[in-house]
Protein: Oxidoreductase, Gfo/Idh/MocA family
Organism: Polaribacter dokdonensis DSW-5
Amino acid sequence: MLKVGVLGAGHLGKIHLRLLKESSKYDLIGFYDPIKENAKNVTEQFGYTSFDSIDELIDAVDVVDIVTPTLSHFDCAERAIKKGRHIFIEKPIAKTVLEAEAIKTLASQYHVKGQVGHVERFNPAFKAVKDKIKNPMFIETHRLAEFNPRGTDVPVVLDLMIHDIDIILSSVDSKVKNVHASGISVISETPDIANARIEFENGCVANLTASRISMKNMRKTRFFQKDAYISVNFLSKESEIVRIQDAPEDLDEFAMVLKNDEGVEKQIYFENPEVTNNNAILDELETFADAIVNDTTPIVSLHNGTEALRIAQWVIDCFKTEEDLKN
């Protein structure tokens, strides 16, 4: 078993602590949280061992799970990597792309592995169809959330949209050519609603909408590709595939058929892939353990996390350009 320690015992940190304690692939050594009162409460309530400093915790483990505010990701990662520790780091990987690149470089220099917590890659609805997504040419995402003060220290792009950016980058085998975006601040000092159009060199276009002041929660992505439409509901954990194929000569009377102006008939087929329920956070943590033990590339590598942040920052830069044009 790999000895693991958690940096940060906030809302998500407590979830990580519980799951790591339950995991058969990790030996949870303890945690560090700079807020002494919170650390004391977590220890008293759950019995986890609290360390007095980041370095003491790092020295005691093989793997460091970084679940701290984004501003401290680089400092925590640098300390852990320089002591030869593998790192699991929550999304976004860092505050800036430069910091993310530095984390990648350090991990390579010190021969340690790293994974970024883009948990939607492990959502069972996406896992059920990811192998069916073949060369999509249009993608549409909606990620809407009711207002929650937690997370408003960063733009909605880094808080919510980055999940969909990572999913899209993992599904499109092409480089990003251009990004257009706009964002609006309603409650926070940073944009609460954003829309982005990401264009790829192969012609694929992705349209993303994110909001953290919605009246209801929604996390849906639709992939359109030749002869198929794939829908993923990350919230309800449901998937659907709609296929369009040449209609057979002996059509069933209940078949759904479309006919174009040339008289070509296409039949529509509906598939509901089997979705195997899981705990996505536990899955991402345990697959990272597998990558360390088996010396394989983590499913969401430091490179993947860096590229998601790079595109997210491109989206945010579009907001700044838009403001400059207004002024």
